[in-house]
């Protein structure tokens, strides 16, 4: 009889441990699904249905860099995702040229383009520096063809926001209902950064370093 109760007790312990293991397994799966849903899970599925339209065009942009102690052409080229040959060409440098602290280098000289984060949209300036983008679509795409997410979170007065950086420029997209990207992630025009709900109105602004740019004369017409 004692042997029977001993075996019964052992079986109960195994059952309890098995239930605990199943509980924790489901908890981990749930957490993994929540994380993937909020980040890159939908990226391969959601794509733009139309060719992205240019919202803002800044002509003949020269991105410049002030040489600091210890800088090399290789290090600067790597930092700005360019080549040593391109830096030499833009700055009239040769193999014998020496970088001096305080020297201003031109990193690139191209047009800076900001595209609409919606496929179908209307725009209106809220202020000279903040653009309102209206749409019946809820899917929000990256407004830059090449960039890195530098911020994802709440901005006071603007709600959930994403900041995308390209060299010295930053584009801020605000009033997002849910974000699908994370800090440090590389994005392009096909990257879904989130979705909006309700009235589907986004705020968009552009910064050059820490200066907020006036968009009034930069809108592509």
Strand percentage lies at 35-45%
Low-confidence stretches: 2-10, 20-39
Number of helices: 3
Average pLDDT reading: 82
Supply the CATH superfamily name of the largest domain. Answer: Glucose Permease (Domain IIA)
Helix content: 10-25%
Largest sheet: 8 strands, antiparallel
Number of strands: 13
Distance between the termini: 91 Å
Kindly name the structural category: alpha+beta
Provide the gyration radius in Å.
26 Å
| Tally of distinct domains | 2
CATH architecture of the largest domain: Distorted Sandwich
Give the CATH class of the largest domain: Mainly Beta
Order of helices and strands: HEHHEEEEEEEEEEEE
Shape: elongated
Per the CATH scheme, the topology name of the largest domain is: Glucose Permease (Domain IIA)
What report would you give on this structure?
About 25% of the residues lie in helices and about 35% in strands. It has about 220 residues and is an alpha+beta fold. It has two domains: about 55-60 and about 115-210, Glucose Permease (Domain IIA); about 60-110, Membrane-bound Lytic Murein Transglycosylase D, Chain A (Roll). The strands form three sheets. Strands 3, 4, 6, 7, 8, 10, 12 and 13 form an eight-stranded antiparallel sheet that branches. The longest helix has about 35 residues, at about 1-40. Mean pLDDT is about 80; it is low at about 1-10 and about 20-40.
């Amino acid at each position: 009889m004692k042997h029977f109760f001993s075996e019964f007790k052992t079986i109960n312990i195994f059952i309890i441990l098995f239930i605990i293991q199943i509980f924790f397994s489901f908890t981990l799966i749930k957490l993994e699904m929540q994380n993937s849903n909020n980040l890159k899970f939908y990226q391969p599925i959601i794509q733009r249905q139309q060719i992205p339209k240019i919202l803002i065009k800044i002509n003949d942009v020269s991105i410049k860099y002030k040489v600091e102690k210890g800088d090399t052409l290789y290090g600067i080229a790597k930092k700005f995702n360019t080549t040593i040959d391109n830096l030499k060409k833009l700055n009239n440098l040769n193999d014998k040229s020496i970088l001096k602290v305080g020297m201003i280098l031109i990193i690139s000289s191209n047009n800076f383009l900001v595209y609409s984060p919606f496929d179908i949209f209307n725009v209106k300036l809220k202020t000279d520096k903040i653009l309102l983008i209206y749409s019946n679509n809820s899917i929000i795409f990256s407004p830059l063809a090449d960039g890195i997410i530098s911020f994802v979170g709440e901005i006071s007065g603007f709600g959930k926001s994403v900041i995308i950086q390209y060299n010295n420029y930053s584009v801020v997209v605000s009033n997002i209902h849910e974000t699908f990207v994370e800090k440090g992630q590389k994005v392009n025009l096909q990257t879904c950064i989130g979705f909006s709900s309700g009235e589907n109105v986004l705020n968009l602004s552009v910064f050059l370093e820490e200066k907020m740019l006036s968009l009034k004369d930069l809108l592509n017409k």
